[in-house]
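Tutorial, part two.
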Amino acid sequence: MNLLHFIDEYPTEESCREHFRTQREREGVVCKNCTGTHHYWLRTKEQWQCTGCGFRTTLRSGSMMEGSKVSVRTWYLAMAFMSFSKKGISAAELQRQLGHPKYDTVWRLMHRIREAMGKRDDLYTLSGELEFDEGYFEKATSKHVKLKRGRGSQRQAQVAVMAESTPLEDLETGECSRHCRYFKMKVINDHSADTVNALVRDSFDERSIVFSDKSSSYVDIAQHVETHITERSDGNTTRTTLQWVHIAISNAKRTLLGIFHKIKGRYLQNYLNEFCYKLNRRYFGERLFDRLTLAIAKCYW
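Running the prediction step on this input gives:
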């Protein structure tokens, strides 16, 4: 979908609200009172009513739009601009495109969309042949505080990077593609074995085969997956065994530096959510906007 198509499809607030209603019903409306999933729509009230207990759910309740005073069409425009751009768009540029008077409102809106992207990707469990490594991302720090430089310092945020390196197979020809399938990036507070083990349990299928370097923090990974293969970290390992995680780290750093410059550590995960969400759906084309509306419409209570 391009901007001209968007204007034709969603010319008014009412058209956006109607589309969002259908997306919520497609994802499934869940009753906050009894967790029931059977509802009927009250058109005059613009609410769903639970067939079990009679509890009513508004159009935005339970979704990422809950509590927002911004119009649904503004949300849709923000999602459109964020999905149209391959790399991303800054809050200042989006504010200019929307003609919105308040920068903070646009900034918060974008971060809620990024949170939805992260929650959507968290629903997926990595499986097959997997690569696991960590990267260090530069973060914004106070100019008045003297911090040491270098890898792993307070100027750097540590990020665990995971990739499904299982080759994609063409069902017609049987040929395997060299492209990687799915990525995840998680900001971590430390590189301890307990932190790594928790990530593996939450993100990996237990039948997976995991490749990593010989870091002492990875010694327990074998307890949570089928096979854990380690190789000494060097230039050859970076180009072969752990090729995709290092490509992802390099591309993420270039994207974040080129558009957002330095990012505060507390918000880095949201920016990584957006990067991974787009990377994982790099072949969706015009369907990306529609998939993003589903992520926003999903009930999260």
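The longest helix spans residues 103-122. In part three we will examine how such features are distributed along the chain.
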